Amino acid sequence: MSDGTQSCRHSTLQLETSAYAAECGFKRPPPNKRAAATTKSGRVLKTSVEEKNTAATFPGPLVLPDDELHWDPKAPAQSFRSWLHEKHRNKITSTRKTLYVAAVPNVDPGVDFMQEWTIPNLNAGKNPTKRSKLDPTSAGDVEPLDPNDLIEYLTAFYHGLPVQPFPTPLRFVPWPDDKPKHRTPNPSSPPPKHIALATPSNLTRIRLRPSPHPPFTHQLNLDDILDAAIAMLPPDAYALVLLIEHDMYESPSDDFCCGRAYGGSRVAVVSSVRYRLELDRMQGIEGGHVWPASHCGRFVDGVLAEEEGFEFERDLEVQQVGVEEESPMRAAVDAAGKVEGEESGRGVWFSRVCRTVAHELGHCFGLDHCVYYACGMQGTAGMREDVRQPPYLCLVCLAKVGYAVSTELLGGGEVEKNGYVRERYEALWKVCARWDDVGMFAGFGAWLDRRLEQMTLET
């Protein structure tokens, strides 16, 4: 995964929001409100963990130019208390607790032209008539993702809930109302305006459009796919996520959309195609500074230095985790750096899809986008920000998930909730250990290891 950044040692880490946060108007909730946001009462008498140590485990959101919080700096903060009293929140019950993962639909021969739509044209603008091979700096062609790997990850991430494959295969098929003239043996003929997503009991029309920009030629309508997911939701499902390998769009003004959840309807759809490693250069992703190295102080300073008209002074008070200090974030950066350059394209692809799927399912739990910390529930405004976000849940968001499972479903109290958090971390660590040749998983595993040590010392 070489892009010329491997020489960076990430010797200082950005623990607080960058200097750009003030420029765009984002004000992070102060420490006392962050601590209060983790409690059921919404109040806290004292901060239980000294703030510097907390920051070395759960840093603040970076807030760089063109990030989500740049464009929406007044986004509301959802505390544990406000989440708990949300009127329309879906609670987990003993009869509705299963998370379902629907694998990528098969493509029927009648719509086999769709197969070409998953192949990126990386030479767009150079020779548009020639289909591109993979970027020579990429990891090369990779086999499809295995939904069983994702099920294993989600079983740990949402520990305590059963996670199962959707019981019947899905298929993309022709939409019956489209006239036959839309499909001829001539490969240059335009595709129809619709296809259909078929289950054994339902057929949902899916709109298509030519992609407005490279690297893909056509896109599927996200809203229609979400409708299909709602129609096939099993009665015992708490939520369902449907995987797609095609590019998607949500509104006519969209360039593309990687995923979306209808939390109230308990469904999510995630497209994996934009996360492939060979697209990094085209999408402006700097591989050497994806999470956890996105918190590298040198990297953050470099991004801000390139922002036209913005001047700042580096604040060492918020970049104090040195090479020697043993903290979860330091351990994560060092562990990820050891495998940098050795990662498989499929492993990186899988790690990115995992983070997004877990995020979208979080919305089904009623979680809003997080503004308290750098967190897996942060919103993202594009692919460059997406790969900079962490896979963990922050203290506030984990309080919500922990309560939903250990208290609302299992009937436990505070002691059981703390035990749940530890068991969840241990389950995630085991999954990360299996993928320790991938930067995100190596970093997440090291972070989890140190976080478990912290929890032992705190008890």
From TrEMBL:
Keyword Isomerase attributed: no
Ranges annotated as spanning the membrane: none
Pfam families (alphabetical): Peptidase_M54 (PF07998)
Organism of origin: Polyplosphaeria fusca
Cofactor list: Zn(2+)
InterPro entries referenced in this protein's UniProt entry, alphabetically: MetalloPept_cat_dom_sf, Pept_M54_archaemetzincn
Region entry Disordered, spans: 124-143, 176-195
Gene3D superfamilies per UniProt: Collagenase (Catalytic Domain)
Protein's UniProt name: Archaemetzincin-2
Keywords per UniProt: Hydrolase, Metal-binding, Metalloprotease, Protease, Zinc
GO molecular function, one term: metal ion binding
One GO BP: proteolysis
